[in-house]
Amino acid sequence: MRKLWPCWHWGVAAVLHSPPQPPTATALALTVGAGAGAGSIVHLPSFVGVGITSVLPDPFPGGGSGGHFAGTKRGKVRRVELPTDAAIGDAIDAVEVRDVDAAGGGGAEGRGGARIYPIFSMLTLPNGDLLTGGGDRYVAAWRRKSSREDGEGGAIVREQAREWEEADRLGPHTGWVKDLAAWTRRDGTAVVFSIGCNRVEVWSTRGSAHVDTTYQHERTLMVESSVDMGSTLSSDLLCLATYIERRADGSTDDVVENCLLAGGVDGRVHRWRGQDDDGTIDEAGTFRAHDGRVNALAACEETNVLFSAGNDGQICCWTMDGDPSGWTCTSLDLGPRHDMSKQVDGTHSTAKVMSLCVVEDQSERALVAAGTSCGRIYLVDITKSEDGSPRLKVVGCGSIDGSEAGKECVVHALCCGRRGRVRDVIVGHSDGLSVWTIDNDEL
Asked: In terms of CB atoms within 10 Å, which of 40, 160, 176, 404 comes out highest?
């Protein structure tokens, strides 16, 4: 059984070298599965009371630190660095908290005094660009500032890793940009997908150099209502996921296709396939996944399963074989685990599963983290049975109590990062930012 270790955070302000402060009283009380090591998690003190609506690992951190982006309800993107040399159980101090200014509708003060919009989604591309989608119906493409210098072999581009500038704005969309996803073509260019109501906007990158990258709108993928599937009202989309499908074609190699998945308010999940050769994107199946909204999707390519999370309190694990209409499902109901004693208005009896992230993905097993509308976080272990069907088991759980009495936290977003031999589950919630640390040796 894997161990779950405590991860304590000391004070950080939005400047470098801030003096440390003790953790605040707002804590995430962690209860783990039988046989696992006990631990506790506290908020980063500088984030207490700051609603976090999206989180994302930075794949290009500088200074030897584990970097993450946190998008706020107030329209800021904050880049947080954590040290990589901390041992399990050590007190951990964030190296830096730095704002990416004017993200997703104008930053903390808005563009020109305009309305402030939340950062609902974030994405990094292989060229280093950071994309943010917000309530202003735009996707902002952020790029580290760079300078050109003359060298013997021609111009040399030097990046200023700590400074960002807006390189492009994609939109407007027909609604809030609730999620972003992308796949990479064989030539290294990217195809970006962004949600706006019942549409998926498709963008492609152009340019061979990082500083010369531009974005071009290619097409719109539409989702319509379906009487046959019981979807007669809104078909708005909420979440995206991409994966690579490898299908045996009867010859020497597998045919590799990029696949896009989208889940929406009507409980359906839609799939499209993309071809590198001619750039076409075709519909490739739709199925009903949940009773109510599909809030999050996460694809595990090695395990060949898709996870979906819904308002019905279910985590569903779909085996991705053949047409989606034939995918088999193993579900886990997290609704009954909701602590009814914290229910204030009595209007709901089931915890909504709001967010997912993949912690581990191997051919025969996976580990997924899930966050709920009542502040609960679960670690779910997935293994393959003898007949190949997945088996789901909760191996760890915890809960976040909000800083306001009687108010539950909503876990809006999760992501996973590595620091040496440990992994962090970064938890973005309605009352701030927290970290759950897992020992790699116990995975």
From this structure: 176
- Report pTM: 0.82
Q: Judge residue 285's burial from the number of C-beta atoms within 10 Å of its C-beta, 0-12 exposed, 13-18 middle, 19 or more buried.
A: middle
Closest by CA to 98, choosing from 163, 165, 14, is 14
Q: SS3 string of 216-272?
A: EEEEEEECCCECCCCECCCCCEEEEEEEEEEEECCCCCEEEEEEEEEEECCCEEEEE
250 vs 254: CA distance, rounded Å: 8
pLDDT tens-digit series, residues 217-261: 999 999 987 766 666 567 899 999 999 987 655 554 566 789 999
Please tell me the distance from the alpha carbon of residue 356 to that of residue 58, in angstroms, as a whole number.
Answer: 18
Rounded CA gap, 261 and 299, in Å?
9
CA distance 152 to 54: 43
Model confidence over 175-217: pLDDT tens digits?
999 999 999 888 888 999 999 999 999 999 987 656 678 999 9
Alpha-carbon gap, residue 362 to 87, rounded angstroms: 25
